[in-house]
């Protein structure tokens, strides 16, 4: 197959748009290149902790036994990939002399973030049966994330993304997905038992872009809904990965009304409402559907806004020295879901909800003080200490 070619041949299209969402927002426009590639074959030592399975869609063998019913379990569904970040800051991708690999993918970041905070989490998604795929599985294991729902595809590679912040403030991305393994997850490969045992099922919109993953996403969410699981949605708009802006808008909104909790950024509000003011509460309320329990609007360093049927308000963020905003939005989501999964009744108590959102804001703030997403995700102790220092 072409995807096994050792040559890196690709064609890129550059698009300028305002970065959407804290996960990759850098307070300026982004340049994103969607690349059609023939992915390289990497010859690296296979992690000793894994025995390979040559059966498509099978998980790695687990000695953990069946998952016990966990009232606070959060299952995160979607993509996990490798980010390549330049070793030298302030250069374009073409100018960078070398790159350092780092685990990425918003749903996976959230799963690790919850576990790092002492919560219970699992990841469901697909990676390539390659060295990077096994490395990502190892990272989930090291961070105490249940990976029984992870699948390995022998015919497609693990997705890659080259990411940098240029001197002019533009975030630049270059994706290798043609197709990548995360796009090929099938309904038959879903661990439905794991989904039904969860308290919260969290997902984004990237898994809605192509089949068969789109159908798998819809089936997984339906299974969760039918089992009484809380559905959490972070659209995490990546416009160049969609065929068009209109298809992105339609795709993101196609599952909007099924979610119980939605986290959205200011730029995503502007995109979905086709240019309306994201700071106008009346505009935000247009996105509030009748069955929604909580709508969150993240505002980067300024904190967040919250909307329920009964009340709404704003919670200020913590002031920190920002080094890298990658993963900040995912850390915020991990922070709030870790609280909701423990006690959903806080959604009816504004004071307790505000406390939970202060905690989530602190999670996001601490993440920007270090480079990378997963390496920077904070522990519960670090978050509590930061909150204490902020009121001292």
From TrEMBL:
Residues 73-379 form the Carbohydrate kinase PfkB domain. One of its GO terms (molecular function) is ATP binding. Pathway: Glycan biosynthesis; starch biosynthesis. CDD domains: bac_FRK. It is an enzyme of class 2 (transferase). It comes from the Eukaryota. One of its GO terms (biological process) is fructose metabolic process. Its EC number is 2.7.1.4. The keyword Repeat does not apply. Pfam families: PfkB. GO terms for cellular component: cytoplasm. InterPro entries: Carboh/pur_kinase_PfkB_CS (IPR002173), PfkB_Carbo_kinase (IPR050306), PfkB_dom (IPR011611), Ribo/fructo_kinase (IPR002139), Ribokinase-like (IPR029056). It catalyses: D-fructose + ATP = D-fructose 6-phosphate + ADP + H(+). Keywords: ATP-binding, Carbohydrate metabolism, Kinase, Nucleotide-binding, Transferase. May play an important role in maintaining the flux of carbon towards starch formation. Belongs to the carbohydrate kinase PfkB family. This is fructokinase.
């Amino acid at each position: 197959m072409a995807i096994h070619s050792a040559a890196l041949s690709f064609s890129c299209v550059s698009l300028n748009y305002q970065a959407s969402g804290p996960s990759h927002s850098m307070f300026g426009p982004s340049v994103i290149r969607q690349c059609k590639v023939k992915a390289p074959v990497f010859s690296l030592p296979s992690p000793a902790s894994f025995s390979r399975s040559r059966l498509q869609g099978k998980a790695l063998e687990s000695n953990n036994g069946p998952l016990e019913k966990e009232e606070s379990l959060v299952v995160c569904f979607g993509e996990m990939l490798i980010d390549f970040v330049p070793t030298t800051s302030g250069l374009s991708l073409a100018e960078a002399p070398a790159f350092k690999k780092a685990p990425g993918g918003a749903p996976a970041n959230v799963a690790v973030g919850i576990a790092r905070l002492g919560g219970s989490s699992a990841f469901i998604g697909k990676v390539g049966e390659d060295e990077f795929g096994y490395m990502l599985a190892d990272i989930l294991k090291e961070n105490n994330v249940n990976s029984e729902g992870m699948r390995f595809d022998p015919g497609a590679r693990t997705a890659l993304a080259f990411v940098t912040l240029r001197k002019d403030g533009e975030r630049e991305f270059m994706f290798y997905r043609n197709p990548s393994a995360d796009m090929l997850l099938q309904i038959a490969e879903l661990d439905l038992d794991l989904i039904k045992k969860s308290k919260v099922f969290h997902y984004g919109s990237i898994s809605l872009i192509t089949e068969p993953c789109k159908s798998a996403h819809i089936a997984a969410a339906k299974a969760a809904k039918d089992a009484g699981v809380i559905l959490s949605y972070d659209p995490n708009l990546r416009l160049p990965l969609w065929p068009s802006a209109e298809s992105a808008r339609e795709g993101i909104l196609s599952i909007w009304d099924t979610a119980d909790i939605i986290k959205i950024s200011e730029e995503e509000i502007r995109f979905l409402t086709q240019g309306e003011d994201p700071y106008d509460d009346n505009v935000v309320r247009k996105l509030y559907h009748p069955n929604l329990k909580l709508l969150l609007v993240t505002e980067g360093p300024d904190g967040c806004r919250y909307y329920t049927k009964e009340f709404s308000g704003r919670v200020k963020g913590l002031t920190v020295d920002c080094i890298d905003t990658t993963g900040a939005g995912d850390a915020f989501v991990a922070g709030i879901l870790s609280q909701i999964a423990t006690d959903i009744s806080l959604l009816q108590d504004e004071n307790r909800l505000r406390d939970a959102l202060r905690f989530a804001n602190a999670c996001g703030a601490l993440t920007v003080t270090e480079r990378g997403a997963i390496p920077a995700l904070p522990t519960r102790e670090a978050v509590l200490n930061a909150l204490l220092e902020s009121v001292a």
